[in-house]
Design goal:
The complex is a heterodimer of chains A (1022) and B (455).
Chain A: H1 17-20, H2 24-31, H3 44-47, H4 52-70, E1 94-100, E2 109-115, E3 118-124, H5 137-146, E4 156-157, E5 160-161, H6 164-181, E6 184-189, H7 195-207, E7 211-215, H8 222-232, E8 237-240, E9 247-251, H9 262-271, E10 283-288, H10 293-297, E11 300-303, H11 309-320, H12 331-338, H13 350-362, E12 367-371, H14 377-389, E13 396-402, H15 411-422, E14 426-432, H16 436-439, H17 446-450, E15 455-460, H18 465-468, E16 472-475, E17 484-489, E18 492-496, H19 509-518, H20 528-545, H21 551-561, E19 563-565, H22 577-582, E20 592-598, H23 611-614, E21 623-624, E22 629-631, H24 633-639, E23 645-651, E24 654-662, E25 670-675, E26 707-719, E27 723-724, H25 739-742, E28 748-750, H26 751-756, E29 782-787, H27 796-804, H28 812-816, E30 825-832, E31 837-844, H29 853-857, E32 863-865, E33 871-873, H30 883-886, E34 894-895, H31 900-903, E35 930-931, H32 937-950, H33 962-966, E36 972-976, H34 983-988, E37 993-994, E38 1006-1009, E39 1011-1013
Parallel strand pairs in A: 6-7, 6-14, 9-10, 9-12, 10-11, 14-15, 15-16, 20-25, 22-24, 28-39, 29-38
Antiparallel strand pairs in A: 1-2, 2-3, 4-5, 4-16, 8-13, 17-18, 18-19, 20-26, 21-27, 22-25, 23-24, 23-26, 29-36, 30-31, 32-33, 34-35, 37-38
Helix pairs in contact in A: 5-27, 7-19, 8-14, 11-14
Chain B: H1 19-31, H2 36-62, H3 77-88, H4 90-101, H5 108-131, H6 158-191, H7 195-204, H8 212-245, H9 257-283, H10 292-323, H11 326-337, H12 341-353, H13 361-365, H14 367-394, H15 409-432, H16 438-444
Helix pairs in contact in B: 2-15, 3-5, 3-9, 3-14, 4-5, 4-8, 4-9, 5-6, 5-15, 6-7, 6-8, 8-9, 9-10, 9-14, 10-11, 11-12, 12-14
Classes of the chains: A alpha/beta (1022), B mainly alpha (455).
Chain lengths: 1022, 455
């Protein structure tokens, strides 16, 4: 370049002729790009007195200062932005994916809300025909299990980390070895809800023909299924149209609590508890020994030992066939029935029973008798007959039958397996996502037999009793990391899709089997099962549905909807009377009976390590973190025990020592214990929580595996504190009795009374006025209405609120101290007598009072009122005087006595993984700060910004609070009270509406709709 | 019975000590080195104080959860202690200001000490509003300062009124106390030979030269300050009672609270003054200055205020019944019969029943008896606050949220520690400053008054 002067080459590019001719003047210009005077004479030192050195020093100093000023001493960790934004992911915007819940066998459709790629909330899938947008507490809290740091991170061989490849390389030969030895491969599974998983298992059997599949779940509907099979020749029993029944008789059936698809049942039940429009109530009779959620809802509750249910049903049949029968009984059946003379009709419950018989007579074809899953097969057969007699079979919904994909293994099958294990005839046991060591009764001897098996492989999410007894422990994906499908109801096929890539070194459980089926450890691919599922989908569902779309489009649309529906009407069969005639008679016993039922929240122990569920108060007793022997006040008096005293329950030589809870309404001879507790090999949260009631179970039960007679119970020394969120006042303590009635916290009526004078609640009520000019709400005014007719106390709203609002788990010790943090609670009040209590439930949350007493006492203005009627809580401003909480008449404010995230279970919560569960829209509160329900202000804000974006007016119905969204019975309504057309403002004006503690004139914005009891008389109960 | 001439003014001091003797006697503890007993006493109070330090350390590090407070019972030992100590702080100003205005000469022997006690009690009380906060490091939010966020304190909150009332009370009491001390500082300045002490006393005596003009101004200032302090005596505990009276919780929402709290405060304050003075007069041989007559008069005030408190208790029950409000009625029945009945009956027996013994003159003049009664009164008054705060909160409107409160070890440490804090200050006070006003006592010695009256 420098020698361009000498170059005389012809230029290809030239600016001017001078340039072309290499004119020296133009070259000079070229060298000095800038005009003279600028470049030559530019001297920075002349412009400013700052030397270059000083300038640089100042620059670096100011940069350093700025940097220091902008930094925060707190380590906020790394924030890594997306290099390439993934498709569909908009930071700050949630994505929803349709999937299927794996919490229990009901396989409800769910919508998983994800934010920036991480799942944060589970809601029901509105397109799913069974659960219709609702999901239970277990399903919602399942999200915490995904972020459980105690899930297995790596495959283990005898507790040592090994690679998947090495595991596969070892297992495949040992599977083949059993083939050559002629030994058995036993695959033990839990409940299988997925047709494709079943196909994988079938493929496995094809590859390894010496395989036998066993299925065992602790609480199952086998008694119902077997009864149905005997009566109607099919295991698939139809759903019940509770929404069309005028009379429902539940026999120890917690169909509103935890039996069957209780989400569906609750919705259907509540359909006949509607007070807006015409009041066409059903009437619920419950005969039960324990006190269940369903029992709390009963209009008439008969306390009856589970051993007397058979007699009771037979007596009913005997009484009811006198008025004719829709089903003709032959002579032998008739004589069998007639043996049961009306002993019940003279009992203390005779009035209720005569009402029941009259109602059943009057509502033939419009009533349903429903027996519980824990009752013996024989009771179910009689109940089936009774429904036939009354013509109630019209209420069976054959288009929605409960299917059985893999039948529960019988007692004989499991015993045989244990025998062959003991005899060394079993080479490999694969525990396929189940926990048989915990859930099988001890007298099977499964655990000791397992030790005789050379290769025991457990596929599990977290270490459990069964995996600890085996040698290979293979971690499987959480359901939210997995593909899957489900078909538990006829005509409903739902898909499950992963919403996050596996967090740990885990594999899809079916893929593990597929690898072994392929026989080659290198064949594993991450989309192994994904492909398999799609192929199976195309082969079965696609062909069955035969849509116009091509396979890919159909697959994606199915994935989008989460569910594929098709017509699958199961045939209505004729009742086989022989089943009834041949069924054995169950004699009633008069001694103590243990009735084992499933825990409402931790299931069969599956959710033991889930703090949210452990801390959700029991719907009836409000006890958290424990199970107990629930006994009647009379029995407690006999044993001279009180709550927290310890008793020893003995059944056939097996004994269990556990605390007592005196439960009003429990039958005198019935001891109700929930199982699922007492896990020994489980994470930090669930360890040593509760008492293992399975130890009382036996493989040789007399009629039902859940009911044991000849029980002895005695007081033993010691106490065990039960952490209840509500104090237990004895019901006959006149000092505190019925305060909820005298204070009008609970206001109730009867349907009869309401029909006669609909305004009975407000008659003679003084109108309260204000002495000041009150603030006028001209724009929106947020308000909630809770219909107590519909609330079953299921706890779905409590969990929804926990998940949505980052409510911390505090642990048993803090619940004992009365420091639980749940923003929403369901209060339970007893009236009546200890033997026949009347129970009222009331969801209680911040009432967002117009004249909020909390607001004026806060010295720092940390709690104040928004123009749209919200009682706000400013966490940053709160200094924690707790004055607001003291002055809250509803005591709904919650104080962070500790940093509950690092206090609970030795900072179990405070880890990088679990903190991912937090909803990023809601502040995580620190210690020393007061908090409470916000009416889901983040959702209001989101709806508002959406309305602004779309240029529309914000409607009250645009906002759905978390509790409202979760409520299976739509008892909770939220909206704009200033919108006269909104449902919430109609409910506020409803004849049955009232406010709790009205006379304080704090003007709450949560309106309660008084409960109406559908009894035969019009006198007020409360 | 012989007739007694009630118009005759009794001499305040027994015997007729020389003025110089009084100076020497009163300044003796200051001028002599502390003895072993003092150090033993100090080590006890310091050990108690260290419990406070540990208790607070645990609380600050882990949170309020270290205490027994729970969901319905948001306030417990923290505010009980606060109200208790504010109450103790009432006697001082009452004695020095109100009794001064009423020309009650017998107050002179005890006024200084009572004022000192007021200041230390208010200091102790002042700890609690700060430490009861969930986030004590943000206590500054309680003061109205121009915040960047334009957030002002909430003037409708009684807790904020507390901040103003207590800080005003403390300031005025301190000034009042100091003004009273000025002539004594001058006396001490004159007496001491120690160079260092001389400088300190000179500074604090503000150039006092016992001149007539000084005395004249002093008397005027003292009178004005007494006028200032008098309404404060009534206002502070009135405002403290507003913390409860302004709320809507049954058992708190009571219009009788202001007078009843003031009476209770005077009651407990006098009991505490009487207790401590009995020890002081014994140790320092002030029996003739703080005479049995004075103590008897204090016991009479105790009897009066105790009966007022008892009337308050009775009135609460009556009004609860009379109001017809079920929640109110339940709260009071619950106090007497509910799970905290034991606390209620401790309160009744200590505050209402025991002081009735003071109707008997012999009890009023027997030191061990009056000492024991006053101790019980302080126990009872502590329990009064416990009953008001804890029982009302533990069972309020909704039975579903009722819960029983149980204090923890840390609660106990802080309670004991607050006594340690208070008594440490008292001990330092008795060795550093004259616990009896030399100037005022000299003015009430027989013959010190102008006697131009015709006999």
């Amino acid at each position: 370049m420098s020698d361009s002067l000498n170059s005389s080459d012809k230029k290809e590019l030239w600016k001017s002729l001078q340039d072309y001719n290499n004119d020296p003047e133009s070259l000079k210009f070229k060298h000095n790009e800038f005009l003279e005077e600028v470049t030559e004479k530019f001297d920075p030192e002349k412009i400013s007195g700052i030397s270059r050195r000083k300038f640089l020093a100042l620059l670096s100093a100011s940069a350093a200062l700025t940097a220091t000023a902008c930094t925060n001493y707190r380590n906020k960790g790394e924030i890594i932005p997306y290099n390439n934004r993934p498709e569909e992911v908009f930071p700050g915007t949630a994505n929803y994916y349709a999937s299927t819940c794996n919490g229990c066998g009901q396989a409800c459709g769910i919508l998983i809300k994800t934010r920036e790629g991480r799942p944060i909330k589970i809601d029901g899938n509105p397109d799913h025909p069974i659960n219709q947008g609702k999901i239970c507490a277990k399903g919602q809290a399942g999200i915490l299990n995904l972020y459980d740091p105690e899930r297995l991170h790596n495959p283990l061989y005898n507790s040592k980390i090994v690679s998947w490849k090495k595991i596969d390389d070892e297992i495949i030969p040992s599977l083949n070895e059993t083939l050559t030895n002629g030994n058995e491969i036993a695959v033990v599974t839990g409940l299988i809800t997925s047709p494709t998983t079943k196909k994988v298992l079938d493929d496995f059997v094809v590859k390894y023909p010496n395989t036998k599949i066993y299925s065992h779940t602790l609480l199952n509907d086998e008694q119902r299924r077997n009864a149905w099979y005997e009566c109607y020749g099919t295991y698939d029993y139809p759903a019940v149209k509770f929404d069309e029944a005028n009379i429902i008789l539940a026999l120890d059936a917690d169909f509103l609590g935890n039996e069957g698809n209780y989400i569906e049942n609750m919705r259907k039940y509540a359909a006949k508890r509607e007070v807006v429009g015409k009041t066409d109530f059903n009437r619920l009779y419950v005969a039960e020994g324990r006190m269940s959620t369903t029992g709390m809802m009963a209009d008439y509750r008969i306390s009856l030992s589970p051993t007397k249910q058979y007699q009771f049903v037979m007596t009913l049949i005997n009484e009811l066939i006198k008025n004719g029968s829709a089903f003709s009984l032959d002579a032998s059946a008739r004589s069998k029935v007639e043996k049961f003379q009306s002993s019940f009709l003279n009992s203390s419950e005779k009035e209720k029973i005569s009402h029941l018989i009259n109602d059943l007579n009057a509502n033939r074809g419009k009533a349903i008798i429903y027996a519980g899953d824990t009752l013996p097969k024989e009771v179910h057969i009689s109940v089936n007959l009774l429904n036939e007699v009354l013509g109630n079979i019209e209420l069976y919904d054959y288009s929605s039958a409960s299917k059985s994909l893999v039948k529960q293994s019988t007692q004989q099958e499991v015993s045989k397996l244990v025998d062959s294990m003991k005899n060394g005839k079993v080479g490999v046991v694969v525990q396929f996502d189940c926990n048989p060591v915990f859930s099988l009764p001890e007298d099977y001897g499964y655990l000791s037999a397992l030790k005789k098996v050379k290769t025991v492989i457990s596929l599990t999410e977290a270490e459990n009793e069964s995996s600890a007894a085996g040698n290979y422990t293979l971690p499987i994906n959480h359901p939210f990391e997995s593909w899957g499908d489900a078909n538990v109801r006829s005509g409903v096929y739902s898909l499950q899709q992963p919403v996050i890539s596996p967090i740990f070194n885990t594999r899809q459980k079916e893929s593990i089997l597929l690898t072994w089926i392929s026989g080659d450890s290198n064949s594993y691919q991450e989309n192994f099962y994904h492909q398999y599922l799609m192929n199976n989908f195309n082969a079965t569902i696609y062909t069955k549905k035969n849509p116009l779309a091509d396979t890919k489009t159909f697959w994606y649309s199915a994935l989008n909807d989460g569910v594929v529906l098709f017509n699958e009407l199961s045939q209505r069969a004729k009742f086989n009377l022989n089943a009834f005639s041949a069924s054995k008679e169950i004699s009633s016993v008069t001694d103590y009976t243990v009735h084992l039922t499933e825990s409402y929240f931790i299931g069969d122990g599956k959710f033991s390590n889930n703090g949210w569920l452990q801390e959700t108060p029991h719907p009836v007793s409000k006890v958290t973190w424990d199970n107990y022997a629930s006994i009647s006040p009379k029995l407690a008096k006999q044993l001279s025990v009180e709550m927290n005293d310890v008793v020893e329950v003995k059944v056939n030589g097996k004994s269990l020592t556990l605390p007592v809870l005196v439960q009003p309404g429990v039958d005198h001879n019935t001891i109700n214990i929930e199982f699922g507790y007492g896990r020994t090999v489980v994470g930090n949260v669930g360890k040593d929580i509760g008492f293992n009631a399975i130890t009382l179970m036996s493989k040789n039960y007399s009629s039902s595996p859940f009911i044991y007679e000849n029980v002895s119970i005695k007081k033993v020394n010691g106490t065990h504190k039960l952490a209840s969120t509500q104090e237990h006042h004895s019901l006959d303590d006149t000092f505190v009795k019925d305060i909820h009635r005298t204070r009008k916290i609970i206001q109730e009526g009867t349907v009869e009374k309401y029909k006669k004078e609909s305004n009975f609640l407000h008659e003679g009520k003084e109108k309260l006025f204000s002495i000041t000019n009150e603030h006028q709400y001209t724009g929106h005014k947020w308000a909630m209405a809770i219909d107590l007719n519909k609330c079953t106390s299921c706890g779905g709203c409590v969990t929804a609120c926990n998940v949505e609002n980052n409510v911390p788990v505090v642990g048993k010790d803090q619940v004992l101290n009365g420091r639980e943090m749940q923003w929403m609670r369901i209060d339970r009040y007893y009236s009546g007598t200890p033997d026949e209590p009347i129970i009222s439930n009331q969801p209680m949350l911040c009432q967002h009072c117009d004249n909020a007493p909390c607001e004026n006492v806060c010295p720092v203005n940390a709690t104040n009122h928004s123009p749209d009627g919200l009682n706000q809580m400013v966490y940053n401003r709160c200094v924690g005087t707790r004055y607001c909480s003291n002055n809250c008449p509803y005591k709904v404010r919650r104080f962070n006595f500790f940093n509950f995230r690092d206090h609970f279970a030795d900072a179990y919560y405070e880890n990088d993984l679990t903190s991912l569960v937090h909803n990023p829209e809601v502040t995580v509160r620190s210690r020393g700060v007061m908090e409470k329900c916000t009416f889901c202000v983040q959702r209001i804000m989101e709806a508002r910004s959406n309305a602004i974006r779309d240029g529309k007016e914000l409607k009250g119905t645009d906002v759905v609070t978390a509790c409202q969204q979760a409520c299976p019975t739509t008892a909770i309504t939220f909206g704009d009270a200033n919108d006269p057309d909104s449902l919430v403002s109609k409910l506020r004006e409803h004849d049955l509406s009232y406010h709790v503690l009205e006379e304080l004139n704090v003007k709450p914005n949560v309106t309660y709709i008084a409960k109406l009891r559908n009894t035969h008389h019009s006198q007020e109960i409360l | 019975m012989s007739t007694v001439d009630y118009t005759r003014e009794l001499s305040v001091l027994e015997a007729k000590p020389a003025l110089r003797e009084l100076d020497d006697l009163i300044s003796k503890p200051i001028e002599t080195k502390p003895n072993k007993k003092f150090y033993i006493a100090l080590s006890i109070t310091l050990s108690m104080l260290s419990l406070l330090v540990i208790g607070l350390g645990l609380t600050f590090y882990f949170g309020i959860g270290m205490w027994g407070n729970n969901n319905p019972v948001g306030w417990a030992f923290d505010i009980v202690n606060f109200v208790f100590w504010v109450g103790i702080g009432h006697a001082g100003t009452l004695i020095s200001a109100i009794l001064f205005l009423f020309r009650q000469k017998w107050r002179t022997g005890i006024a200084r000490f009572a004022e000192g006690m007021t200041i230390f009690a208010v200091m102790t009380a002042g700890l609690f509003p700060l430490i009861h906060l969930g986030r004590p490091w943000l206590a500054g939010y309680l003061f109205p300062y121009p915040s960047q966020n334009s957030i002002w304190v909430n003037f409708t909150s009684p807790l904020l009124w507390d901040v103003f009332a207590v800080s005003t009370y403390f300031t005025v009491s301190l000034i009042f106390w100091y003004v009273g001390l000025v002539p004594d500082f001058a006396t001490l300045r004159e007496k001491t030979n120690h160079k260092f002490k001389k400088i300190i006393y000179s500074v604090f005596s503000l150039g006092w030269r016992f001149s007539n003009r000084h005395w004249q101004n002093y008397e005027m200032v003292y009178l004005i300050l007494a006028g200032f302090a008098t309404p404060l005596v009534l206002s502070v505990h009135t405002i403290v009672s507003f913390d409860f009276a302004v709320s809507i919780i049954p058992g708190w929402h009571t219009t009788i609270f202001p007078p009843y709290f003031v009476a209770g405060a005077v009651f407990s304050g006098f009991a505490m003054v009487q207790n401590v003075l009995i020890i002081v007069r014994k140790i320092f041989n002030y029996e003739h200055i703080i005479t049995l007559d004075t103590l008897e008069k204090m016991n009479k005030v105790i009897l009066l205020t105790g009966s007022m408190v008892g009337y308050g208790y009775a009135m609460e029950f009556f009004i609860a019944w009379y109001s017809g409000v079920e929640a109110e009625q339940f709260t009071f029945l619950n106090r007497a019969l509910g799970p905290y009945a034991w606390a209620f009956w401790i309160m009744i027996s200590c505050n209402v029943l025991l002081p009735q013994l003071f109707w008997i003159k012999k009890n009023r003049r027997t030191i061990p008896v009056m000492f024991a009664i006053a101790v019980f009164i302080n126990v009872g008054m502590w329990f009064e606050r416990f009953v008001i705060i804890v029982t009302s909160l533990s069972r309020d409107f909704l039975p579903s949220s009722w819960a029983y409160y149980k204090p923890t070890l840390v609660d106990g440490m802080i309670l004991i520690g607050s006594f340690g804090f208070f008594f440490t200050w008292i001990l330092l006070f008795v060795k550093a400053l004259p616990v009896v006003s030399m100037a005022e006592v000299k003015a009430v010695v027989d013959g010190a008054q102008p006697s131009h009256k015709e006999l």
